[in-house]
Design brief:
By secondary structure, the chain is α/β, with parallel strands linked by helices. Helix content is 38%, strand content 16%. It is globular and about 55 Å long.
């Protein structure tokens, strides 16, 4: 393994306070590096440094920086000479200031809806942040304006179904794979989260994730894309990693390896949707100029968000899919008094 490219050197991050995710497991991090760009043992940040940022970029922007580990790590490996980073949460920004040390990083508070590009950047980094953007096309337009002609926009992002509302066939497939594993490895969590839980917990979580690639392609020129996958393993390992953590447990090692191999195969053949991708995009001279892009940003998005505000963060498309899933259009679901014959559990 290389000194700096090893999956073992991938930053270990606690994304949330309670939930435990698939990439808390070293084997999953290794799987991600093999599915990602560069060498099989090279984490994406070191690939970014080697291929796009040697010599270092002049000025970088990290969007939705959270606790700040991304820009600190990128500063430590000299990806850029200076970093700007922002987050909507003032507590995060204050904590980032505390942890910055002498690194060349400047922080400011902003949400995605109000962000306005006032500087030019030859590197913009999105690490699992854009899936929180409700005004996705407006944000992408601002970022396109901020990117220099020789700049790059780098993504490591969830691009799967909005609010993790997986299709019925996808859920049924995950359930079948879950049942086929030895019982101690079964996930006891729902393999499709309650839509109501997503809205009450964080209404921006994966809110328009399925449109991220569309937005990128409208405003940037895609230079490379690597589909990491996750259509099986991500949800099945959510809060279900304890049985896989002992490296001496041969059965767990074999079951996890088989699950990740199946995830890769079924991502590539389209059996399951792509949930995570690594994308590098460059400047596009006609960014957002197409009629489709202008319609998305100026008409469809404002109308969609205005309607969602009136409907308590529910979107018309999500409601339609929910109604179809539960056959609420079918009169057999209802009594003559308008009461539902069978309760809805999701």
């Amino acid at each position: 393994m290389s000194d700096q490219g090893s999956a073992d050197l991938a930053p270990r991050v606690e994304y949330y306070d309670v939930d435990r995710f698939w990439n808390d497991l070293p084997a999953v991090v290794g799987h991600e590096t093999r599915r990602g760009p560069g060498e099989p043992d090279e984490w994406w940040t070191f690939y970014l440094k080697r291929v796009y940022c040697t010599p270092p970029r002049k000025r970088a922007l990290v969007i939705g920086c959270g606790n700040g580990w991304v820009e600190r790590h990128l500063a430590d490996i000299d990806v850029a000479e200076h970093f700007d980073a922002f987050d909507v949460d003032p507590a995060y920004v204050a904590a980032c200031e505390q942890e910055r040390g002498d690194r060349p990083i400047s922080y400011f508070e902003s949400d995605f809806r109000s962000f306005v590009a006032t500087e030019k950047y030859d590197l913009i980094v999105n690490h699992a942040a854009m899936h929180h953007a409700q005004y996705l096309y407006r944000l992408t337009d601002q970022l396109a304006k901020a990117l220099t002609p020789d700049g790059i926009f780098v993504h490591w992002e969830y691009v799967g179904p909005d609010r993790n509302q997986y299709a019925d066939g996808h859920v049924a497939h995950m359930e079948a794979v879950n049942r086929a594993m030895p019982e101690r490895f079964h996930s006891s969590s729902r393999l499709r989260p309650f839509l109501s839980a997503a809205i009450t917990g964080d209404p921006t979580e994966a809110v328009h994730a399925s449109e991220i690639v569309r937005a990128i392609e409208q405003y940037f020129s895609v230079l490379e894309r690597h589909d990491i996958g996750g259509g099986l393993a991500y949800q099945m390992l959510w809060n279900n990693i304890a049985e896989f953590e002992d490296p001496a447990d041969e059965e767990a090692t074999e079951v996890l390896a088989a699950l990740l191999d199946q995830d890769a195969r079924e991502t590539d053949d389209g059996t399951v949707p792509v949930l995570f991708s690594f994308i590098v995009a460059g400047h596009r001279p006609d960014a957002g100029a197409s009629l489709t892009a202008r319609f998305d940003r100026l008409i469809r998005e404002p109308a969609r968000e205005a309607l969602a505000r009136r409907m308590k963060n529910l979107y018309l498309g999500q409601i339609t899919r929910w109604v179809r899933r539960h056959h609420l259009w079918d009169p057999r679901r209802w009594t003559r008094k308008g009461r539902m014959r069978h309760p809805i559990t999701n």
